[in-house]
Design goal:
Elements lengths: L1 H40 L1 E6 L9 H10 L4 E6 L2 H9 L5 E5 L9 E9 L3 E3 L4 E3 L6 E9 L5 H12 L1 H6 L1
Parallel strand pairs: 1-2, 1-3
Antiparallel strand pairs: 3-7, 4-7, 5-6
Length: about 170
């Protein structure tokens, strides 16, 4: 009889622990979503199809960071199709793509800039990746017309105000 009582007590504790763990998992998942939303609200995601132009745009990013110290800039790269896909899914805020790519005027704002291709330093191997043609390239900066992120408006205003300076560098 004692054994049966002991088994029932252990089973009750296991069931109770299971329900406590379910509640804890739901609580942690909710907190993760809230933290992700807070990080996304204070971030700008910028994607490049040619990361070699990133260095020539650093003065612009530094100027933006000084004006918006609470905003984190995240730099990503991928192909043009991925950039459009991530823009449509609101996973990135701005895409820097080849000028010959087409942007739908109803969905995206587009600004053409000249950017010089510079070398990239690979930290893991300690080597420099040099462009074969270090000339300036025409780059289209695209972003969605509607955005809930206030930093998108701030960065787009900075882009438009500094278009001549960007093209002169």
């Amino acid at each position: 009889m004692k054994e049966l009582l002991l088994v029932c007590a252990v089973a009750a504790i296991i069931v109770f622990g299971y329900f406590i763990m379910k509640k804890l998992d739901a609580f942690l998942e909710n907190n993760r979503r809230l933290i992700d939303a807070e990080i996304a609200k204070n971030s700008l995601y910028l994607a490049f199809d040619n990361p070699m132009i990133l260095d020539s745009l650093m003065p612009l990013f530094e100027k933006f960071s000084k004006a918006n110290p609470n905003c984190q800039l995240h730099f990503l790269f991928g192909n043009t199709e991925d950039i459009y896909d991530k823009l449509n899914k609101n996973r990135i805020d701005f895409g820097f793509i080849e000028n010959n790519a087409s942007a739908n005027d109803d969905t995206y704002n587009c600004l053409i800039i000249s950017a010089k291709q510079n070398s990239i330093i690979c930290e893991k191997t300690g080597c420099t990746i040099e462009p074969l043609n270090p000339s300036e390239t025409q780059t289209a900066v695209i972003w969605k017309r509607t955005s809930s992120n206030a930093f998108v408006d701030s960065f787009s205003d900075l882009l438009l105000l500094n278009q001549a300076a960007i093209n002169a560098e």
